[in-house]
Amino acid sequence: MIKSFDFYFDFVSPYSFLAHKEIKLIERRKTVKVIYKPILLGGLHNLHGIKAPAFIPAKAKHMIRDCKLIAEKNKIKFKFNSYFPIKSLNLMRGVLVAEEDNIKSYYIDNIFDSIWRDGLNMNDESVIQKILKNLNINPKTFFLRSQSSSIKDLLRKKTNEAYEKGVFGAPSFISNNKVFWGQDRIEFAINEANK
Length: 195
Prior knowledge:
It is built from nine helices and four strands; from the N terminus they run βαβαααααααββα. It is of the alpha+beta class. Strands 2-1-3-4 form a four-stranded mixed β-sheet. A hairpin with a 2-residue loop joins strand 3 and strand 4.
């Protein structure tokens, strides 16, 4: 039986991107299934009453260097996005729409790459529209669906559920009801899943 664990992510997090790239390799070579759980990181931070490292100057400077080191070590094409922070609310709602259309993995791959590999300005709606068109997704209907109350409520619910489970940052993994925080904790989550 293939074991599984949950991956809590937000496109705004460069560490989530790096974890996503590692997960893709891990899933190819190991008998483990990773279940992607979209959350709104800003909302999660608000629930916990914490400030994101990206908004603390000393930590932000370290984060950029750290992400580049991890990317180089793992041979991941990475470019710290000059438009950071990316407003990820609609992009994260888009994950839920893509899930309904059975293109969740395809959508996640392309949005992550657009932000953290290609360095595109994902705060610009026209850039997002172009990407969606390239994915053969109708931007107008996709955006309309992402603004529906059911999608908004679902993302809020998923973020609240993550909070209730003790998730406080992204990426985080839950394996056998244990929380592992940080891109460098993937192996711990795998080991826990395989117990």
